[in-house]
Amino acid sequence: MFSDYSLAELSSIFMMQGFAGLILFSVFVLMALGLAIIFGQMGVINMAHGEFMILGAYVTYFTSQFFLNYLPSLFGIYFFIAMILAFLASGALGMATEWLMIRHLYKRPLDTLLATWGLSLILQQVYRSVFGPREVGVELPSWMMGSLPVTDVVEVQINGLFVMGLTIAITVAVALLMYKSSWGKQVRAVVQNRVMAGAVGINTEKVDRYTFGLGCGIAGVAGSAFTMIGSTGPTSGQLYIVDTFLVVVFGGAQSLLGTIASAFTISQAQSTLEFFLSGSMAKVLTLIGVVVILMLRPQGLFVIKVRR
Amino acid sequence: MTTPAPTSGRTFFLRRQDMIGIAILAVLLMVVLPLTLDNFRLQFVGKYLTYAFVALGLALCWGYAGILSLGQGVFFGLGGYCMAMFLKLEASSVENTKIQTTPGIPDFMDWNQITALPWFWEPFRSFGFTTLAVVAVPALFALIIGFALFKRRVGGVYFAIITQALAAIMTILIIGQQGYTGGINGITDLRTLHGWDIRTDSAKTILYFVCVGLLIACILLAYYVKSSKLGRLLVAMRDKEDRVRFSGYDVSSFKIFVFCLAASLSAIGGAMFTLQVGFMSPSFVGIVPSIEMVIYTAVGGRLSILGAVYGTLVVNWAKTSFSESFPELWLFGLGGLFIAVVLIFPNGLAGLWQTYVAPRLGPLFGGQARRAAPPPASEPVAPAVAE
Amino acid sequence: MSSHNDGSDNFSSTRRRLLKGLAALPAAPLLSSTALFSSQAFAQAPATSAVNTTGLAVTDTEVTVGILHSVTGTMAISETGSVQAEKLAIEQINAMGGVLGRKIKFIQEDGASDWPTFAEKAKKLLVNDKVAAVMGCWTSASRKAVLPVFEQYNGMLYYPTFYEGLEQSKNVIYTGQEATQQILAGLDWVNKTKGAKSFYLIGSDYIWPRTSMKIARKHIEAHLGGKVAGEEYFPLGHTQFNSVINKIKLTKPDVIYCAVVGGSNVAFYKQLKAAGIDLNKQTLLTISVTEDEIDGIGGDNIAGAYSCMKYFQSLDNPNNKDFVAAFKKMWGEKTVIGDVTQAAYLGPWLWKMTVEKAGSFDVDKIAEASPGIEFTKAPEGYVKIHPNHHLWSKTRVGQAQLDGQFKVVFETPDLIEPDPFPKGYQ
Amino acid sequence: MNANVITDSMNKDFVLAVEGLTVSFDGFKAVNDLSFYVDENEIRVIIGPNGAGKTTVLDLICGRTRATAGSIRFKDRELTKMKEHEIVRAGVGRKFQNPSIYEDLTVFENLEISYPKGRTVLGALTFRRDAAVKERVQEVAETIFLADQLDQRAEYLSHGQKQWLEIGMLLIQDPELLMLDEPVAGMSVSERKKTAELLNRIIKDRSVIVIEHDMKFVEDIAHKVTVLHQGKILSEGSMAKVQADPKVVEVYLGH
């Protein structure tokens, strides 16, 4: 298929595809970070992850409506406020969920899967009853739309750049939190030895609650960011769940670096395949590839070999 | 799991209370329901019972062996599609399809410019082959997956997520390859089985009894497996996999077996579904129906074989009647059920029965032993991936 | 249309009278003209035994129909409008005195976006409730699932969605357009006015987009002398379109021809805009975006794109003005009305007129009487039922505006004949 | 490995010959070039401070962990390449540090599951609880002092009884090499005595490797003691010899 294009065009293709892949990569990382914390650090399978994301998206929608109606002059910056609100809303719901439901189930990981699936059904119906069954369109400030021309053909999307920047910022923040702060040490201590962590005076219940809240809060931010590129409706969250889990599992559940590497691998594979094949087949091949690699290397890409 | 004293009375492989339980279920399904329900409602029950096959398989696979598959819909679908292919070919006789560009092939193929029957459809002209394929194709598929995953010691959460991905892959494939599969519409408009019109009320009643018969047979099979040494090994593996391995057992082969068995049971259900409902579509294959099927088993009590059947009936009956009266509330109900069955009554109906009803019924029903289930706190927390 | 609403009040008062005793009926002349009409209808109501020989749910005062759409699940987004339109039509018909002197009562069932549930509920409506007709279904898959049920139990389905064709049944009236009606005129228009020769086809991966694209491709290649620059399908719910957008940028087609549905739609247009593709410069013609979809996509993301439908909310004719006003009065100012919603609105009306023509609720007689039924008050203008149970209708091209409405830029001069099994396009 | 060809003839007398065994986890050598030999009917006790690699050695022998280098020969069969269940079937039984029994099953069923028949899928499906099985279970139950508890659910046993039950589950398979990881942990003094007695009784037909911390118990049972330190052998020989070894004293007391 390359014979139809000139060399210049080919280099443009690769640049644009590379950029498309990077956007997809950022999207995957954003989706997976929250889950990687919850699943990787706590062992909880949160099937309602997508619904936490959509909560963030709805919060963004309402913030935009509020600014449109009451503070139109500040509309240009509403998105930042919306993201903070989305984080708080999803995080708060996450902590409530942990308190009411998850904390009773730490010894039964498969049961968390069923319970959170139930939660996701309930949340979907809540969204439908409260916000209506139709998708809502989130209006963006004009500076976030459009693209910057690089060459005649190559252009980079501003919202793509924004998502990438956000992804980097959140990833760095999470990494610092998990690996540098004392709170992060507590989380990792609880993960490694709950009893011992409790014995040395760490309030494990509190750590659990805040960890879960943090994961859900990040999901909320991700949902907020996705209003730029995707749809916001009661069932939109379900679109993400399989991809998200595969990214986390493929990366090796407990490693943040693994999650990022796996998001990178899967996104590049998918966006490259999409260019050469039709969208459906690209998706199928990517999924099959991930499953086959997981069969060969069930522990995921990055996992520290430990002695038992 | 119900741990009979080694000397307790059992005939062949069934304990007395099991036999009574099966007999009650058989009477309920074969006599009570057909006499009390009109044709219309009875056909609903027939449809629900096809899901009970899946739930039965999950009780063995998940309840006993601790392998949670979120892809049982794939097997239900494979079985259903095998049967649907046979029926579709019979419905696509040359004279029925003479308006098509290529008469004699299924209508959706004609719409997709396929001019000859694909090779893998060809054997489904034979009913014998179809019957075999209904069980064998899903079992083979499960064998491949099971072999690849269990030999690599993938289990627990990881297995659940991978099977979920498989369900997603399968759905996209079926929808995308519509020339060969009927796409999102599925294979519809199935009419006759060897000239016997399966759409009539009398045919549906007969199919209902066939379905019940098969279900009872599968229940007996499940009881046999459960009461055999293999059944005890499954429980042993679930709780102490390493101990079983270091007692000289090839653990993976047992997991593969039970996974294949569950897949075949699901497939039988799928085939009966196609026969009774008259079509098969990818909407049974995906993630959502697959997880919903898990809830049937969970509601029945994940360790109870008969509970799986009752759980299926109760959830589906609730779904139908609930959504007739309060369509908006059904998802709340279903979601709440998922949470309740995990948090409040983890042993499901069987657990409730055992705690509240059985003790009052006295020894005839096996007192505390019947459909007993240990608290699920002992569910494996072992690392999913063993190195 | 406002007179209908007045009539509604009068009607209910009439009904209260009726309940008090039929003796009150002669007093009707005191009421408004609409009410007069309705009371006359009551007075003339033929005996139930004569109009209902097959045991349908018809009494001396009431006739029951079914509404069968998804209220829950992923399809609820799309089907809500249809439910609203059908309820509006039923209310208006009742206000005018009902059908053969009988008030329409409806039983609503939820298909829950799940095809077997549709089949189950269809059976319930036909077998248990014995409804005289069903307004319902949206996706092809749900229609395919219920079709055998309707044929087996001899029910009547009014199906509102534009769809892929390749079907015709005695038991279904298709009030939306079949694929050739919708597609060919739009392609001709874009070819003529924009000089379009190369087309990039993008669709969701299921039967309707694939069949539509097949027809479009044949028409482009055989009749327009154009070429297809690319053809792509994405799984339902797909949200990442950057790769295909890159391909579009490289192949620079004259027209992006688009049949992406559901949540994917939103992602597609947002990403198209973000990628700097200005739809006022790059022609995009879609067959899957109505006013309903724009609600979710956002007017500013899709402004400039062309959509090919038989109905737009902005159609300028008296029928439509009345319809839009009545719809908004019943369902709120903010609601929008898309092509399918209007087609769904036609269902109860066509059924009413057919019943009156046949003088019977019997399904066989309705199926027979349907061809030739004309509806002059249709919001889209004028429709007529073809012997193949589809509708003669015009096709229009609208350009999406910032406010989420379409500006109609083209309308076929004549009604287009429905052709569900088009020769040369299969 | 290459050394095996030469040492083959020498190995004949040993039940187990471990040579040059090494395993590393991300560069950390938990077991480093370890070699030792176990005779027929010998009770070998492995001692050493925490983290010396004792449990890892057992893991390596029974196949739970794969060796990075070296060989493990059991009656002239190379174990490093065999699957876990094959190693068990070859005659190596292993008890875990924490009693690993099936708590939901009865003592009888625990022993029955371990009975070396019906080990394939088909075999397990058709396995019958015949007289031979019952007799053998009874016999083993008596050996492990649990004959009265056969119908008891295993979870209700005392900690010491659970340890015995697990030993019994190995005995029913009649292994030629029995490996016990801390068999008397959590036992009362009298139970320890009984366990020592038990071990001395069952040694007739087999060899036993024991990991233990309790020196009194080690003295009671050990024919030979191997002291591990940082994945290497620090000292080996009779209890008396080992106890006198200054290196051992330094490791145990110097830390």
What does this structure look like?
The complex is a heterotetramer of chains A (308), B (387), C (426) and D (255). Chain A has 308 residues and is mainly alpha-helical. Helices cover 71% and strands 2% of the residues of chain A. Chain A has a two-stranded antiparallel sheet with strand order 1-2. The model of chain A is unreliable at 304-308 (pLDDT under 50). Chain B has 387 residues and is mainly α. Chain B has one domain (18-378). Chain B is built from 15 helices and four strands. Chain B is globular. With 255 residues, chain D is α/β, with parallel strands linked by helices. Chain D has a single domain (2-254), classed as P-loop containing nucleotide triphosphate hydrolases (Rossmann fold). Chain D is 40% helix and 25% strand. Chain D has helices at residues 2-11, 54-62, 84-90, 107-114, 121-126, 131-143, 159-171, 189-202, 215-221, 239-244, 246-254, and strands spanning 14-25, 28-39, 43-47, 69-74, 77-78, 92-95, 177-181, 207-211, 224-229, 232-237. In chain D, helix 4 packs parallel to helix 7 (159-171). Residues 1-9 of chain D have low confidence and may be disordered. Chains A and C meet through helix 1, helix 5, helix 10 and helix 11 of A and helix 4, strand 7, helix 9, helix 10 and helix 11 of C.
